[in-house]
Specification:
Elements (H helix, E strand, L loop, with lengths): L1 H5 L5 H15 L29 H15 L4 H8 L3 H11 L6
Length: 102
């Protein structure tokens, strides 16, 4: 759980909740790992601006990138965590230029 404890949680409670949901969706056993998965999505660049100065589009793009990374880019799981349909997720991936890192 060192990475979990060391993460600064810029998204606060919602980010933590989404990570936990993604961990539950990705879980194959009876227990959840407390380790954060290594990010695999190309997340939009972080800005130095406080969260309240960032646009909703920036916040949404970063959130979707984090959820996709937590779900290992499994779009079905990411849709379940985000509460959106696959066509909506695909449109947002294209609109925000999100790419999976290998």
């Amino acid at each position: 759980g060192a990475r979990l404890a060391a993460h600064d949680w810029p998204g606060n409670v919602r980010e933590l909740e989404n990570r936990m949901q993604a961990a539950m969706m990705a879980s194959t056993g009876d227990t959840l790992s407390l380790e954060l998965p290594a990010p695999r999505a190309a997340a939009p660049a972080r800005t130095a601006a406080p969260a309240w100065e960032r646009s909703l589009v920036q916040v949404e793009a970063e959130h979707i990138a984090r959820v996709l990374a937590a779900c290992d880019w499994n779009q079905g799981r990411a849709c379940a965590v985000l509460g959106i349909s696959r066509p909506t997720l695909r449109k947002k991936i294209a609109d925000y230029g999100l790419k999976e890192r290998r």
